[in-house]
Design brief:
The protein is mainly beta. The chain has 3 helices and 22 strands. A hairpin with a 4-residue loop joins strand 14 (172-179) and strand 15. It starts with 14 loop residues before the first strand and ends with a strand. The protein binds calcium ion (3 copies). One calcium ion is lined by residues 105, 107-108, 121, 123, 129.
Length: 306
């Protein structure tokens, strides 16, 4: 048999869907009035593939990250000094050196260390929470993060807000990692790689520039509307081994940094109560994401620690 006769599937090819997804889960958690429902949907893209929106996650199978701040769990310390870090369980990522990671995601993250899933965000959508994850691993350490900007209008990348039923929200991911001496060994910065795999809403598909690893939606509208029900979404297949230490991410774009003001954290105590971590003066972790903080809703990010 000749494989040359078969055109190889182009893994980086974009496919589109139109309109709302079908809800398959009304909400991964229930946090009452304080929370937007973290619903999950499915929609068929034009290539005949069923897509899970905003993302297929391991929320039910992965280890939930311990809380730094989580109003859903009534964990609301006023500062780091009110948190007993020594009581946090240590996850084994296949090594002996111990580390602690502090994480804030808008809205959801899954964290892999050396290919091992060590933490999933316990609050997929809102209220905004933060996490503290202790793990053991051997250097060099590969870090791989799935970031998801959750959505209320499934498949349409938007939620009710600011006077519109179809307001496209923004995203962002920030993390700081220390060793046992308290030395900061990793922060989110523009040395990371970041690639989008789900971009929505697209008022007009032609605004998207998609060639191979270039996925540029900067020409696309981010305006809220009164009716976004007919908008499109763009999908790219996620490589099965994207979280592995030896995955080649050299074709992915570098992460883009976003300011606290742009992400809008000033009213989020899961962040502001811990600025000595997230805005450490000697090593200020910055919010990172792909090139479009608003429209790119499932972004994979990678870096490594020597
Ligand atoms: Ca969250
Ligand atoms: Ca910062
Ligand atoms: Ca968004």
């Amino acid at each position: 048999m000749s494989v040359l006769l078969c055109a190889p599937a182009k893994a980086e090819e974009v496919s589109f869907s139109t309109g709302p997804a079908t809800t398959i889960n009304e909400g991964l958690i229930d946090c009452g009035w304080r929370s937007r429902p973290s619903a999950v949907g499915e929609i068929m893209s034009d290539d005949g593939r069923m897509r899970t929106v905003p993302a297929a996650t391991q929320f039910h199978s992965g280890p939930h990250a311990p809380n730094l701040y989580n109003a859903c769990a009534d964990v609301e310390p006023g500062s780091l000094s009110d948190v007993d870090i020594s009581a946090i369980n240590v996850v084994d990522a296949g090594g002996s050196e111990e580390f602690v990671a502090y994480v804030f995601a808008d809205n959801y993250f899954e964290l892999y260390v050396n290919g091992v899933l060590i933490a999933v965000d316990p609050v997929p959508f809102t209220p905004f929470n933060s996490s503290v994850v202790k793990f053991t691993a051997n250097r060099p350490i590969s870090l791989a993060v799935m970031g998801v900007d959750w959505e209320e209008n499934l498949g349409l990348g938007s939620e009710a807000g600011r006077g519109s039923p179809y307001h496209p929200g923004d995203a962002g991911f920030v993390m700081q990692i220390q060793d046992t001496s308290g030395r900061i060994v990793a922060i989110t910065d523009t040395n990371w790689r970041a690639q989008t795999f789900y971009t929505s809403p697209l008022h007009d598909r032609n605004c998207l520039v998609a060639h191979g690893h270039k996925r540029d939606s900067s020409a696309c509208s981010t305006d809220a509307t009164s009716d976004g029900s007919g908008f499109s979404a763009a999908f790219w297949d996620i490589p099965a081994d994207w979280m592995e230490p030896d995955f080649d991410d050299s074709d992915w774009p570098l992460a883009v940094a976003y300011s606290n003001d742009t992400v809008g954290v000033d009213n989020k105590p899961g962040y502001t109560n811990f600025i000595e971590l997230f805005d450490a003066p000697d090593a200020d972790a910055t919010f990172i994401w792909s090139s479009n903080l608003v429209l790119d809703n499932l972004v994979l990010m990678r870096t490594s620690i020597d």
